[in-house]
Design brief:
single chain, 384 residues, alpha/beta, Rossmann fold, 60s Ribosomal Protein L30, Chain: A, 46% helix, binds guanosine-5'-triphosphate, binds magnesium ion
Amino acid sequence: MFDLLTQDHPLPRIAVFGVGGCGCNTINQLAASPLSDNVQLVAVNTDAQSLAASQCNTRLQIGLETTKGLGAGAKPEKGHEAAQESAAQLKELITFADIIFITGGMGGGTGTGAIPFIASIATELNKPLVAVVTTPFSFEGHQRNRLANNGVEQLMQQANAVIVLPNDKLIETLEKKISLLNAFFESNRILQDVLLGLTTTISQSGLINIDLNDFIAVVSHQGRAAMGVAKQEKGEDLQVTINNALKNPLLEEVDLTHAKGAIVSVMATEDIELSQYNSIGASIQQQLDPSALVIIGLTIVPELECELELMIIATGIQAPSAHNAILADATTIPPKKDRFNSLELVNVSDLLKAKSRDGRNDPSYETELDIPTYTRQNNLAKGL
Ligand SMILES: Nc1nc2c(ncn2[C@@H]2O[C@H](COP(=O)(O)OP(=O)(O)OP(=O)(O)O)[C@@H](O)[C@H]2O)c(=O)[nH]1
Ligand SMILES: [Mg+2]
């Protein structure tokens, strides 16, 4: 006879909140990926039209009274008020989860105002939380950048682990001719990779598990966090893969040597050698603060096509205070005309307007990317 092995510890429940236009775009992309049953995607927006187009099972329209379903009009105080109005529903969703991820774009009204508020509920309920936010392109203007920096500062006071993905980095690293929508898509793909990597690692029972307590130990370090993913193709050098994961060019430049913790998720075929596993740990440990707590999980995926896949989240990185960051931005970002050839500049609202016109013939467009409410409203006002 044999005994059935039952799972003593049920899988941690993970809630991923996508807040505002950018957050809902990311969540929509994530909804198309294979996710395990313990992951709940929650689309949160003040904008009823964007929510209606979302593919998420759980959708929460916040601030019905405050914004009347029309978005927060690039006013973070409105986004904050909207989240406050819907605090009870947000609390209920957060209570149900063991780990919270929040993602969205800083610089508009909904994400900038609501994300720090949602983070504060998670903190109040003592839930481990990782926030992954974007900051605007500099060509979106100083006002948006200022709002975004304030939003990040507020968020840092509420969340332990805050990962910042500047949209400007997209321009530096992606092909110059890439369309804005594809650039957004690429940036969302990075968010998607990491969220997917993390949820999979925590949900799967790997050979060497990262469990909820490990996760809490690493994300409870205060400060900026950084993330990276990389694949080692067959025959490629492992060290190059590790460096690629540590130096993901789409991330904000942070000094990893001060990181106080890291979660490393390795997916490999059963051919992985002990020496490879050891050198991943040693090499990452070497690049962080000497006292850093590094937790490595290993999941064997027999059908993996490459040699291995790495996902790293480093936490507790001391960033300059957001106040300094704002000053640094104002003084170090040269005027637009000095930075880019004007032919390469895209006017975000013209481009989105043009796309929204094209989109009428392309039903997939509206559901894939949210057009910021203010652009849509302008379009309506101008009869476009
Ligand atoms: N990477 C990426 N960034 C985006 C995307 N959509 C918007 N953004 C960025 O996020 C910032 C905030 O835009 P939204 O998310 O549309 O704003 P919101 O939170 O919905 O705020 P309101 O519409 O004003 O209520 C923008 O300034 C862009 O820089 C996206 O799909 N991907
Ligand atoms: Mg919006």
